[in-house]
Amino acid sequence: MLDYDIRTEKEYEYPLNSIFAIIPHLSKFVSRLWQIHAFGEGNTRTTAVFFIKYLRSMGFDVTNDIFAANSWYFRNSLVRANYNDLSKGIRETTEFLELFLKNLLLGESNELKNRYMHIRWKMQKQDIGVAKQDIQGNKQHIEVADDVSNITKQHIQVLFERFRYDQFFGRTEVMSELSITASPASALIKKMLNLGIIYPMKGKGKYLFVRGIDFSK
User: Fold this and answer.
1) Which value, in Å, is the radius of gyration of the alpha carbons in the chain?
2) Same domain, 108 and 15
3) Strand partners, 209
4) Number of folded domains in the chain?
5) Where in the sequence is the domain holding 184, given as residue range(s)?
């Protein structure tokens, strides 16, 4: 597999008129190289070193700085470039790796956030007792089931207005935003998890509101 990819790369004629045109090709090449796992333990680091040296051989003045500062993003973008689950409508994509390379080769300032690569899909049935999001102008609110107390609904709404979909929060932030102590903050987080409107970030003790899920019964 490695011989095949290297041979195919040698046969590829890079266009000279636009650097933008070569970024998708470079993304596919390095993602396939990584997926072969030719370097064993430390495969991602070695792939990065190989890629830097390869880019330098083509005249690009690149260093390890961006790789070092965004090592987790680089690794996860390689995963997304090779991951398929057609049963859930998920296809491999190099779009995140291309953003990384645009920063590296073009000096762009694309935001390289791991959470942008999270895969979520809409399940066919969700019996979580949460009503559909209601968008009115620029304001969104979440309506929860009748068996949830009004104060809990208010607390959820306050947290949603504060953190939306792209800001992590944990017990400390809940305590600060709602002016409550640790025990009720933990209970509220557990309640939101049970309702299915937030999900945990592994190993972080942090949570995000679920995006794109139909909250209707």
Assistant:
1) 22
2) yes
3) 198
4) 2
5) 134-209
Which tops the pLDDT comparison, 73 or 206?
73
CB 171, CB 189: distance < 8 Å = yes
Q: Read off the pLDDT of each residue in 141-145 and give the average, rounded to a whole number.
A: 51
The CA-atom distances, in angstroms, between 205 and each of 123, 175, 202 are 25, 14, 7
Three-state DSSP state, 66: helix
Rounded to an integer, the average pLDDT of 36-47 is 90
d(CA 92, CA 95): 9
Same domain (yes/no): 147, 205 = yes
Distances (CA, A) of 84 to 33, 91, 199: 17, 5, 22
- Give the integer Cα–Cα distance in Å for 56 and 62: 7
Same domain, 8 and 94: yes
pLDDT confidence bin for 197, thresholds 50/70/90: confident
Give pLDDT tens digits for 56-67. 999 999 999 999
Q: Is the pTM of this model over 0.85?
A: no
Q: Which of 66, 86, 117 is the last residue of a domain?
A: 117
